[in-house]
Amino acid sequence: MAAAQKTSFRIAVIPGDGIGKEVMPEGLRVLEAAAERFSLTLEYQTIDWASCDYYEQTGSMMPADWREQLAGCDALYFGAVGWPAKVPDHVSLWGSLLKFRREFDQYINLRPVRLFEGVPCPLANRKPGDIDFLVVRENTEGEYTSLGGRMFEGTEREVVIQESVFSRIGTDRVLRYAFELAAGRARKHLTVATKSNGIAVSMPYWDERAEEMARHYPGVATDRQHIDILTARFVLQPTRFDVVVASNLFGDILSDLGPACAGTIGLAPSANLDPERRFPSLFEPVHGSAPDIYGKGIANPVAMIWSGALMLDFLGRDPALADGTPWLRAHDLILRAIEIVLADGPRTPDLGGDAKTEDVGRAIARLVRT
Ligand code: GGG
Questions:
Q1: Mean per-residue pLDDT, 116-139
Q2: pLDDT attached to residue 325
Q3: Confidence label for 3 from pLDDT (cuts 50, 70 and 90)
Q4: HEC states along 164-187?
Q5: How close is the Cα of 223 to the center of ligand 1, in Å?
Q6: Mind listing the pLDDT tens digit for each residue in 216-234?
Q7: Quick one: pLDDT band at residue 7, thresholds 50, 70, 90?
Q8: How many percent of the chain have pLDDT more than 90?
Q9: CATH 3.40.718.10 region(s) of the chain?
Q10: Using a 6 Å CB cutoff, which residues line ligand 1?
Q11: Residue 261 near residue 244, CB atoms below 8 Å
């Protein structure tokens, strides 16, 4: 008997903290415009936890039955987390975003970096096309672990140890994903971020697994670079990059640096993927909660909107869907609307304009709807 085909998706909407609460309505506005235009059925479930406000009220970031509450959701659309005045950053991050990534085995963090027409670039003599690459960040292990401890706390003999974890399964699966991605692109080039001259156990292992994986992809040109010179080349020679694969920490740093080189981190989207679709994937802007600008209504909503487009693209490729074409077209149209508004539309202050978050969201939604 043929498997039942899906016609709609259920999205958990998690605004979180700070400007997450301001950019989320714009993301939803654009998703609704796309849904209307392409007759997509999206159901939303708004979540008021996974935030520092919730922590203040309850002493934890999420309720004990968070999994049950999210049962039936196909994806999570996430704003931002963190409010250090209320909750230490490592508590809020580990209690929400990192928990989702690990518990839902979202082992790929895909972060596109692109210089758009009309966006002022801080790098000299760069034009659109010069910066257009994908960072693939390992998302469930590496340097982001809670393994370690403190001894002799508060004394002169204080010792702090923080462990990293590089499993063969975890390393191979992110490398495989990155090679597959590179193999499907025009340039077929993969940069492997490493630091095996300094980090003498885990990084030589990472390199070894990358070399082994490369044997299966003879059509992909591979380039191994130490993270220090790699960051310099993001600034000095961004045209070198097509797909970049990196450990959790290196990928986090590269995917903030990349968008900063392309004008503003306010544009950078991210997809936290379980490619096998055993669990819901999570889509969020790269930026955080930005307490310094929260409340002014000036946050750039493009990263949130573009993340929503990535979500439609991922959902549209679900084999359980009868016809994914309208979902993929909706992704393409949102991206086109973003391009048009960035080239010649309202701009938030991070791009030198004086537009409000809502002005940009409305302009993009209008283009998507018509
Ligand atoms: N938009 C998600 C967010 O709030 N990110 C803040 C952050 O600190 N992220 C760290 C990470 O992505 O690992």
A1: 96
A2: 96
A3: low
A4: CECCHHHHHHHHHHHHHHHHCCCC
A5: 28
A6: 999 999 999 999 999 999 9
A7: confident
A8: 98
A9: 8-105+268-370, 121-262
A10: 80-82, 93, 97, 252, 284-285, 287-289
A11: no
The bridge status of strand 8-16 relative to strand 41-46 is parallel
Write the single-letter amino acid at 248.
N
Q: CATH number of the domain at 121-262, out of 3.40.50.10490, 3.40.718.10, 1.10.10.10, 3.10.580.10? A: 3.40.718.10
How far away, in angstroms, is 79 Cα from ligand 1 center? Answer: 9
Encoded tokens for 213: 């994986």
Provide the residue type at 319 as one letter.
P
Hey, how many other C-beta atoms are within 10 angstroms of the C-beta on 215? 7
Is the Cβ–Cβ distance between 38 and 342 less than 8 Å?
no
**CA separation for the pair 192, 211 (Å, rounded):** 10
**Predicted confidence (pLDDT) per residue in 59-86, tens digit:** 999 999 999 999 999 999 999 999 999 9
In this prediction the pTM is: 0.96
C-alpha pair distances (Å), 82 with each of 26, 51, 272: 20, 7, 18
Residue 298, both tokens: 């000036």
For domain 8-105+268-370, give the fold. Answer: Isopropylmalate Dehydrogenase (3.40.718)
Mutate to test the pocket of ligand 1, among 97, 108, 144, 307 (most ligand atoms within 8 A of CB): 97
Say how many Å lie between the CA of residue 97 and the centre of ligand 1.
7
